[in-house]
Amino acid sequence: MSSKLKLRLFGWITFINVTVGISLGGLLYTIWPDHYFRWFPSIPLFYCLVDLAMVHCLDSVKRHKRDMSITVFMVVRMCRFVLACVFLWMYASWVGERMKAFGFTLMLFYFIHLVIETYTNYLYEKKRLKRLKEEKNGQSKV
């Protein structure tokens, strides 16, 4: 992954986290104040850090192995799920207030990031298949 693409991906991740975080936080704070919790900003921050770590890990895997496999994709998803469970457990252990609102918000961000990750991998696979097809056509012409 080129540094330009990596920076662009980091930018998109940050933009989505800030946009969804401010929108959802604003809705909870103004329209449903009884569902707002003080630790709300920790959720977008958590997912931003997890996504940046995952992009870094996927980049290192791609540098060592030319193509990503479905196994790497699923391991990243499993790591995201385990980290979200650990984050929920830590919140329940240390803070423990408004658990339903926190859990629902954490789950909402989780699904948003799964969609983003799936779309990113779809684009990667589409680009990879196009590159393989071009390589195959180049070899058959020679």
What overall geometry do the principal axes of the alpha carbons give? Answer: elongated
Number of domains: 1
Give the biggest sheet.
none
How many DSSP H or I helices? 4
Total beta-strand segments: 0
Q: Indicate the percent of residues in helices.
A: over 70%
Q: Which radius of gyration do the C-alpha atoms yield?
A: 19 Å
* Secondary-structure element string: HHHH
| Intertermini distance | 29 Å
Mean of all residue-level pLDDT scores: 83
Structural class: mainly alpha
Q: What portion of the residues fall into strands of 2 or more residues?
A: under 5%
Low-confidence stretches are none
Question: Any descriptors?
Answer:
single chain; 142 residues; mainly alpha; 4 helices; elongated
Write up what this structure looks like.
- The structure is a single chain.
- With 142 residues, this protein is an all-alpha fold.
- The chain has one domain (3-141).
- The protein is 84% helix and 0% strand.
- It has helices at 3-30, 42-64, 70-94, 99-141.
- The model has no long low-confidence stretch (mean pLDDT 83).
Summary, kept brief:
The protein is an all-alpha fold.
Give the helices and strands, then pairings.
Layout: H1 3-30, H2 42-64, H3 70-94, H4 99-141
